[in-house]
Amino acid sequence: MGGWLRTVWRLRVGRAVSSEPAFALMLVAPTLILLLLFGVFPIGYSVFVSLLQWRLNIPGVPTFIGLGNYARMFHDPVFTASLGKTLYYSVFAVVGTIALGLATALLLDRQDVKGKAFLIAVLVVPWAVPRVSAGLMWKWIYDGNYGILNATLLHLGLIHQYQWWFTGSQWVALSLVALTQIYKDSPFAAMLFLAGLQTVPVHLQKAAMMDGATRTQRFWFVTLPSMRFVLLAVMILETTWALKTFDLVYVLTGGGPGNQTMLTYMYVYRQAFSYLDVGYGSAMAYFVTFVVFVVAFGYYRLAGHAG
Amino acid sequence: MARTVKAKKVTRRTLLAGATKAAVTLGLASGLSNVTGTKARAAGQSYAGVHLVILSAADGNPGYRITSPYIPQWEQMTGATVEFTEVAQDALHAKAAQVLVARSSEVDLFWTWAGYTAEFGPAGLFKDVTASISGATDVKDLVPGAMDAVSYRGRIYGLPRFFSIRSFYYNKRMFQEAGVDPTQAPRTWDEYVQTARKVTNPAKGQYGVLHQYGSNVGLLIDYQDHLVATGGRMFDSKDRITFTNALGLEALEKYVELSRLGVVDPASFGLGESPAKRARWIQGHSAMEWSWAGDYSMSNDPKISAIVNEVGVGLIPGIHVRSAAITGSEAYAVSAFTKNEKAAIDFLLFIASPAVQKDMSRRTGWYPVRWSAFNDPAVSAGNPMILNAKLQAQYPTYRFAAAYTNEVTDLLGPHLLAAIRGQETPKAALAAAAAEVEPVVAKYRQRS
Fold first, then answer.
1. In the CATH scheme, what architecture does the domain B167-326+404-447 have?
2. CA atoms within 13 A on the CB side of A150
């Protein structure tokens, strides 16, 4: 097909004009146009909107205020508090996901595990369930009237009456939301770690064993270092996903009670879509994007040093 | 001279040309028939071919649906089709804003309450239908508290689907067991607090009062309940903050006092929305609550309630007034960009008609939007809520609604919760909230 197109191109355009680069450009032009229309233009426009004072429910022309929205952020107590909550949430979610994912991968990597293929298929289910569905499921699990968590703990004698789990300390509330993210993301991490475990040099393991290293020592000094790139890839992905969490918070708590679980992106949504302050919402969104970029860059440099 | 007829050669070009001509002809014919109205219509089907799209909040609990049961009848009467979509209230606001600001005609009618109407009406996003409504129906028959949901500063943007005013519910069995007269509700604030203390027995899982601390909206509704009972208001007519004055402070102190006394069901902290609060109420853990009309019918539903025939209703006990209540009517507003304005208004008039309102009220327990339905003995028979609502409506009513309602709710809510938890004093909580609210409201003051 490429040859036919090339022939038509040369007959139409003329041999003097046609060239390999021009032909290649013609072939990628549709994708480039789509990218410009649905990628570059919206991003550029929303950056411009972040420089405006623009509330959709106040009629009138938006006003250009430069970096005013960005400056406003740091005087906004809800926003600054959300940064701390998002940091706590991200650390909890990333550490938990990596720990559970790694433990699962190590268990599945054992030679004596039966039905490995079936177990891996079952493992994928939480990851395959849409995040909103997972959030709704956990909302019911945590529910203070009917939740199975309460029923189980009451049956085991660990609590004396049903609890409303999100209404206590904000750190407990944030941890519960993070547990939902760990449930959702640890299968993906486990898959990556399982693949990484296959690349650990067997001769190093055997050499360590012969030198008398314990299982724990082999894990810390042979297995983990061999998996450092996989580990870093998982950390980068999980950190960026955790920093950008919105859907789980929206479904589980809406950012409440009060602003207890108000993560940064939930607040961005609140400003842009509840209060219709699209200028301020855009500015906050780009600030968080910048933070995510810095974190990802930091990890990349770390990976470079480790390499 | 004989004419020689050349046989036309059938080629791809001729086939394509013929097909194009046929398509254009058919399209023009269909379009013309729409313009000239020659499309066949049954008698009385004035909106045949119209597809009305309604974006609504929840249409009531299962078995108590408010608007959707009447749609097939209207469709049959008019020949129109209706697409009725329910979304969660928070998502509805965002969706409505996106559709309206984009000036899209994809939705004809939006669910609304006083807050959304105050936000979208003056901004030109809801259609001002004052003239159409006034000319099409007896406006005097519409309950003013119901019209508050869909009008702002004298302009009307749609019609209400039910009238709602807070009522006082109490559990007669729990009163009797605690030695309190079960035949009447507390008449004063002090009586209310004393009764709550008598009834509370945490060992039995019994509490005096049920509140709604689980969301900023719930907290603000509860606070307004107490504010209107002192005679206070959130803002004055010039959008200046008044909730920090003596009446506003006393309202918060009274609200917080109940939690400090330990008479509030701890589940209140987890109740964010009215359906969740209703579900808790009908389990019978609390003796008293201030709530909406739907709670009464659900309380007496044997399929779901643990307190059937145990619930009494009464006037809300005031603090500086005998009684006062907030209203919470719901409505549908017409989009400023709809292409089906006449059909949309016709639908609203149908839903607000006396016949539909009587049936809706009998079936669901929500109050009708027309006085003629309110006063109908068939509607009030066997439903003490109707008589109670009429009595309650004679006392002061209020509902905070402004273009900045969402923001004030989210700024004030956390401070109310902090005051309830003892993390801030009521005075400090209101002062801190006011400091955050003032710059937000100032922007809207500049607009007006």
1. 3-Layer(aba) Sandwich (3.40)
2. 17
